Structure formats: structure tokens, C-alpha cells
Amino acid sequence: MNYRKRLIEWLFEISQKAYLLLKKKQPWAITNAQLLVMPSNTFGYQLGIFLQNQGFQLIPKVERHDAYHLLTGFSTSVQDEIALQYVCFGNGKRTPYLLGVLILGTLLLPEYASYYKQAYSFGRQSNHFHHFDFKHVLPIDYDLFRSTVFSETIQQGLRKLQKQYNQELNQIQTL
After folding, report:
1. Domain map of the chain by residue range?
2. I want to staple 48 with a disulfide (CB 3.0 to 4.6 A). Which of 24, 36, 81, 120 is the partner?
């Protein structure tokens, strides 16, 4: 991984710690184990699987972020974290943190600008999701919920976009 991506990861870690100290939100108080006993078709169960596959636990007060990953299909790689924020920005979310990620991410990783532009476009074309209280979405059917946010065309476009950039990333890493 190049030094710019390591810098962004470090900034994510620092900003997350600051966010957790300053944020007044109530944590969900739900464990991965509780998610994994939900019916397998639910958003909550699928979130539990995502977290398990990544080796993550829900981070109190920022649980919604992991729900965004599950909903959009973006990985937790540095460039996908930034692309995810572009989807959210396109979807109407506006926070100082998000704007900081967009500015710094774009400045530090300009080679992904077209990726970010396309991610933004998918966010604009999607039904609004950034305002949902995802704790209440947990018992809802995952596929049904996802299809209400993203049309099948947008879902296919997101998969194609992510596959394209993952292939390019793999090619760069093998050089």
C-alpha cells in the first residue's frame, strides 16, 4: 500500500476516535452474535455476516457506516471508503466529516477521480437512504430493502463499477 493510502487510514483512525468522543448519539447496543441469530434474509443478519467476514465488530455510535457498506457493496479498502462517501454525498448526506473525506481523499488519491465521480452519480440516482435509522432496518428483508433504494440497473452498475476498479487495483498491485 502506498504512503498516501496509509496516511488516509491514519486520518480515518484519528478522526474516528475524535468523532466517538464528540458524538452524542446512543449506540445500538447490539453485538455481532445478536445480528447472526436474526433470520438469514434480514438486513441485520447480512450485516452480521459482513462484519464477521471483515473481522469487525460494530463500532458504537457509527454503526450506520457499516450498514452503508452492506447496502452499497463497497469494500473497506481506502478508495472504496472514499467512494462510499461519494455515494452518500450524491444521495444528499452533508456533514463536515463527509466533506473532509471527499476533499482529502480526492486530493490524496486523484487517480480514483473517475471512480468517485461515478459513485457520486449512483448516489444521486438512488432513492434516499442516508437518513434512515438503520437499527430499525435490521429486521427488514435485505433484498427487498436494497431494491427499494437501488433499482436493478443501479445495482448492476455498482457491481460493474466496483469490479472494474478492483481489477485495476489488482493489476497495479501485481506490477
Report:
1. 3-12+60-174
2. 36
